[in-house]
Amino acid sequence: MTRRDLDSRTQTLERTHTQRPRLFRVLLLNDDYTPMEFVVMVLQRYFRKAEQEAELIMLAVHHKGQGVAGVYTRDVAETKVAQVMNHARRDGHPLRVVAEPEPDA
């Protein structure tokens, strides 16, 4: 190829459409043994909830069986689940925490 051939070629650039990462809800599940105060502390420490908001979420867990601690990307949600579960086990509480995908809008 000559230089003229190289200069006359066109280059096509593709535009890629990036999607927002899928979000996951971190849910605290009710049990009959974990103290309410521990749940409030977990919500304040790991999910940065104010005391009043943490208490409302704790009451939802207690009365409805579960409460949403927060909504995060998958990696963050899984990390928070592991942190809370480790803390609960270390303190001898059976608290269950799960991450589930947010429903599609």
From TrEMBL:
<dbReference type="GO" id="GO:0008233">
    <property type="term" value="F:peptidase activity"/>
</dbReference>
<keyword id="KW-0378">Hydrolase</keyword>
<comment type="subunit">
    <text>Binds to the N-terminal domain of the chaperone ClpA.</text>
</comment>
<comment type="similarity">
    <text>Belongs to the ClpS family.</text>
</comment>
<feature type="domain" description="Adaptor protein ClpS core">
    <location>
        <begin position="20"/>
        <end position="97"/>
    </location>
</feature>
<protein>
    <recommendedName>
        <fullName>ATP-dependent Clp protease adapter protein ClpS</fullName>
    </recommendedName>
</protein>
<dbReference type="Pfam" id="PF02617">
    <property type="entry name" value="ClpS"/>
</dbReference>
<dbReference type="InterPro" id="IPR014719">
    <property type="entry name" value="Ribosomal_bL12_C/ClpS-like"/>
</dbReference>
<dbReference type="InterPro" id="IPR022935">
    <property type="entry name" value="ClpS"/>
</dbReference>
<dbReference type="GO" id="GO:0006508">
    <property type="term" value="P:proteolysis"/>
</dbReference>
<comment type="function">
    <text>Involved in the modulation of the specificity of the ClpAP-mediated ATP-dependent protein degradation.</text>
</comment>
<dbReference type="InterPro" id="IPR003769">
    <property type="entry name" value="ClpS_core"/>
</dbReference>
<dbReference type="GO" id="GO:0030163">
    <property type="term" value="P:protein catabolic process"/>
</dbReference>
<keyword id="KW-0645">Protease</keyword>
